[in-house]
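SAMPLE LOG
Freezer: B-3
Tube label: C17
Construct: single chain, 326 aa
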Amino acid sequence: MELGKNILKIRKDNNLTQDDFANKYYVTRQTISNWETGKSYPDLETLVKISNDFNISLDILLKEDDKMVKTIDKKVKATRKYKHLLIYVIIFVCLLAFVGYKALMLNKYHEEIREDIDTSKIFNKTLTIKDSKYDGDYIIFGDLSIPNYFEGYVDTESPSTFRVKRDENNEVVSMYSTGVQTQFINMLNMKNMELATDDGEEYKPEVTNKNVRKYLDNHNIKNDIDLIKHIKDNYYFKSNIFTSKNKMEINYLLNSYVSVSFPSFDSITLINGKFNGYIFNVSGSPKGLRQLHIIKDDKQYYMVLGGEENTSDEFIEKLLSSAKFN
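STRUCTURE (predicted):
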């Protein structure tokens, strides 16, 4: 029996007019007539309702109606196809949203990073210091003794710690200053680290100090030299949409640290051999300015040198070759 005849039988067995049947399934009386004469078919949802309403299985309802079975089969396949298409669309939209979010993060990241030093020349050379003896007087600061090659230098009248040398016109031609402080890396290990932006507002990075310490440990960064080498290779790294938020935030923190700690230096010279350390170089200074750092334990022994006569590599090598720890 064909589907149309089954629908006709169901309607008459239940004493329903075509209008009654049409109202029951929200269609017109003409639609019911078309169903019963085989000119059209109910959709799959309506067939299921008819099956449930009159307690007749779909197998019996569709029995011997091959045309309708094929139609339903096509609709089912089409439905599956649309479902797959919908899944693909959802995946695409999610991926698009992810890419958009990461793009916004990258834009914000690159806008906020301040590129204060030229990383292409962060290391201009390496000085290897060999040991030599010196029989003259020493300048002592902390545990480090530096040979006194600074004859004619006098204290400044201001509270500045610089000692200066003047020419016949009383103009300062060279200067130096010494000191001892904790290594810069300890800034990143502070329990309550605070950085400030250019406008003076406090900047609190989202990464915790625990994250930073873990990052330093994972990269075997033990002192300032390790940190400087790491910054050289990772400063302003080229991020992409797959870069994790944590990595971007830690890199931002490292860059902020560079901006705060190394704001006016053009390049860095590494020191090895007798001592381990580095020199910050300011090539733009008319009289020359170099800041020498010797690393030992958790301290840095620094010496600021200004003026042409005491900022050359030869002078610094001579100075360090005779320096000694007490």
